[in-house]
Design brief:
Distance between the termini: 7 Å
Oligomer: single chain
Largest sheet: 2 strands, antiparallel
Number of strands: 2
Strand content: 5-15%
Order of helices and strands: EHHEH
Strand order of the largest sheet: 1-2
Low-confidence stretches: none
Length: 95
Amino acid sequence: MKTKVIGTKAKQRSQEIVKGILSIKTFVDYLKKRIVNEQTIKSEFYRFVLKKIAKYDELGGGGVISMDNIKKYTNIFELIYAALTTATESNSKFS
């Protein structure tokens, strides 16, 4: 998976800058529902992903990720990518 963070801290007035955050709450809720219904090994992987997310106190309940701290969560984004794509998909398709 190709990961890149693009900075936007150019000389701009504060009213021109849009505050950006990411929330993974919907994703966490999705995994919890999938675990209940999933009959394959995927449920174990989903549990693994949820445990990794829970290690970050600020994300444990599906919290928000500040754009200023986005690099801190690269491994979480890779797990989200792995959970949402099939094992047979080519990585080049998404790069």
